[in-house]
Amino acid sequence: MGFPTRWYRIPRPQTFLYLMSLRTGTELITLSLLLNKVSGVYGLLALLTGLHLSSLQLSMYIYSILALVITVLLASHIRTQSPFHCVALACFYILDSIINAAYTAAFGITWFLVISQHHSDASGSKAPGLGGSTIDETSGFTTPQYNVSHVDVAVAPDQGVGPGDEAVTVGHPGFSTTAAGPSLGHGVLQPESMSSIITICVLWAVRIYFVLVIMSYARLVLRQHVAATSRANTALHTGSKSATMLENPFSPHCHEGRGWKGKLGRFMVSLGKAYWLRNEEGDEAWMNNAQSYRKREEGMASPVPGVVERERRRRSGTGPPPPMPPLQAGQYLRVQDATDGR
User: Fold this and answer.
1) End-to-end distance of the chain based on CA atoms, in angstroms?
2) Which string of DSSP letters, residue by residue, matches 257-286?
3) pLDDT (tens digit, 9 = 90+) per residue, 253-289?
4) Dihedral sign, Cα of residue 50, residue 55, residue 60, residue 66
């Protein structure tokens, strides 16, 4: 028994959080990306204060500045619905997610190793992992002389001259949380680590949804452009050599396929050609629903009857003649007999 293709294809949201259109959602996601990349500027400004940064942190801040410039250049074309810039924004957001996942994994592993070190017998030694020394210095951990879980205070009579009592303290070591040396597994099993892991998983689930929204909007823009500029312009797939594939708008013979933008566009589309150009079942309804939701958001869902047709006829010059100007006082309308001049 086969499964429908829509069950294992990449999800294609029609709205953003079921409240806004894909374009509005893409704008909000891009705004959050800009705010995230601005942190790279403040990270480099910290160097002026004498803060020591590891090579991993420095590379992340430099990349954040480059990503900020690219995002600013692409964000302005979301409303213009340029197919090249929208597809480029979607591909760049995917690439940025992969790079952020690598940095998150690197910093996360180092963080758990630092936690494991402070709960092991090797506490006080050099912090392990990439950038471990910087994280250890700024994390606020202390290195006590004795690693104990709790202290009991006992009072005993003073054996010396004069009245008084002396206090005796007895510490109980926390054997359940100590280890011979720092390790990733030991750091993950610490009580405070599970909340960090859950938070990271939730944030990455949101990030994956954002990726799907931006990809869906770029796909919508691309398919609208193909439908509007197709050589026959009678069906969505018209103009392509295959009945199941759309015409690539970045082909060399197309307007969008000229120059370096055309080469880059063909490369981006080739990375997921089936997603961008395959004409699948339900795509027409998906496009119509996405467009109608955007129109409802902009307040254009229910135009006044007859206005659109009158405007079309006025622009084409086939409409009725303009009404006669009103008569002023003292003027008379002269009606000429149709038989005159025969």
Assistant:
1) 84
2) GSHHHHHHHHHHHHHTHHHHHB--TTHHHH
3) 888 888 999 999 999 999 988 889 887 766 666 666 6
4) positive
